[in-house]
């Protein structure tokens, strides 16, 4: 679900829409979504209804779409915080994009959101993501999200 090739550090993109499209195109290349435009439109539609900034310069864009084949989480740390939502000028620097197949949209989607949110409440986790110097360092931090989701499914909650 979380792959090293879906981790982007110090990215210089400054537009929410460009970031969502850029990450979606990379996910498409792995076959985890089957239509970039359909997925991007679902995510942007969700952003228009209710922006996904959650404080702490964090945004968690996601959208329900038939284009998602396999669940994934992408992560981007922009070089500088960017304005994520033009209406309220909320900024984001740590961006987690979630994709979940429609048949898992309720249960798995909520588990991923809950696990990301739980980790982001930890200041040390956020600081470590901001300070990670390599993709491997960021990956080591992020893989705990996936591990905890699967541990919960197996009844081994940490």
Output the structural class.
alpha/beta
Spatial shape: globular
- What is the end-to-end distance? 19 Å
- Spatial ordering of strands, largest sheet: 1-4-5-3-2
Largest sheet: 5 strands, mixed
| Annotation, overall tally of beta strands | 5
Listing every helix as H and every strand as E from the N terminus to the C terminus, the arrangement reads: EHHEEEEHHH
Task: Explain what the structure shows.
With 158 residues, this protein is of the alpha/beta class. The protein has helices spanning 16-29, 36-49, 107-120, 123-131, 135-153; strands spanning 2-11, 53-55, 58-59, 72-85, 90-99. Helix 1 (16-29) runs antiparallel to helix 2. The longest helix has 19 residues, at 135-153. The model has no long low-confidence stretch (mean pLDDT 91).
Could you list some keywords that capture this structure?
158 residues, alpha/beta, five-stranded mixed beta sheet, 5 strands
Q: What layout of secondary structure does this protein have?
A:
Elements: E1 2-11, H1 16-29, H2 36-49, E2 53-55, E3 58-59, E4 72-85, E5 90-99, H3 107-120, H4 123-131, H5 135-153
Parallel strand pairs: 1-4, 3-5
Antiparallel strand pairs: 2-3, 4-5
Helix pairs in contact: 1-2, 3-5
